[in-house]
Amino acid sequence: MKSEKLIYQGKAKGVYETDDPQKVIVEFRDDITAGDGAKKDNINEKGFWNSIISAKLFEIIEEEGIKTQYIDLIKPGLMLSWKLEMIPLEVITRNIAAGSLLRRYPFEPKQTFDPPIIQIDYKSDEYGDPMLNDDIAIALGLIEKENLEKIKEITLKINKVLRKFLESKGLLFPDFKIEYGYDTEGNIVLGDEISPDTCRFWDAETCDILDKDLFRQGESGVIEAYKRVASIILDEENKKKWNIEL
Ligand code: UDP
């Protein structure tokens, strides 16, 4: 199924063509970067765990009738996905103040947001992923107004679904970044990944950090934290299907 043709190479994932023009294979690699690529490393098994965590969270979202790119895991690390034409927007949702929000604005650490904040950045290494407003996104021709509204609506629904699931497992969900694309029929579909590389996950009781912030802060135990997220969210059926021991 996996042809040799790499059609996109990102900082932590690659996308390969398949025999079916509507499907691609997303390869989750062990490369990890932070600060727009300023800090780089390779963490053994990171791609494996990120693909499984993403697959599980895509399944939870699909169960609520929201379209995602996810079809199946061929094996951990390789995700069979619908081919999307990606929209260069990073859609960030914030439930609790953390990260760049605290560096840029006078919010209190751990201040909660109800309703959640949606922030949309321009996915562009050249321009350093600047934050957009609706008018700039539309003027740049990145998206049409109607689709921007649709994306915000879907994102709020995804936040609700994931928060409910994660909180039921004892995890807080301070913020996360998602990306969307168009399928071959022009529908807006959730793409990319939902993993500790792109989300903040905190243990609700201990407030332990279980995501890429450990790497950003130069701390040890990154892969152990990612594995802990997997062990918290996977059920026995998932472990059996993906042949995982935790
Ligand atoms: N995020 C991401 N890719 C980016 C920027 C942010 O996946 O290029 C995620 C990040 O992991 C966090 C959320 O979006 O879950 C908000 O990130 P923030 O703006 O706080 O940036 P950071 O503090 O990570 O620089």
Structure description:
The strands form 5 sheets. This protein has a 5-stranded antiparallel β-sheet. Strands 8-13-14 form a 3-stranded antiparallel β-sheet, with helices on one face. With 246 residues, it is of the alpha+beta class. 30% of the residues lie in helices and 28% in strands. A hairpin with a 2-residue loop joins strand 6 and strand 7. Bound molecules: uridine-5'-diphosphate (UDP). Uridine-5'-diphosphate (UDP) binds next to strand 9, helix 2 and strand 12.
Q: What percent of residues adopt helix (DSSP H or I)?
A: 25-40%
Class by alpha and beta content: alpha+beta
Tell me the strand percentage band. 25-35%
Extract low-pLDDT stretches. Answer: none
Helices and strands, in N-to-C order? Answer: EEEEEHEEEEHEHHEEEEEHHH
End-to-end CA span: 29 Å
- Largest sheet geometry: 5 strands, antiparallel
Keywords:
246 residues; alpha+beta; 5-stranded antiparallel beta sheet; 3-stranded antiparallel beta sheet; 7 helices; binds uridine-5'-diphosphate
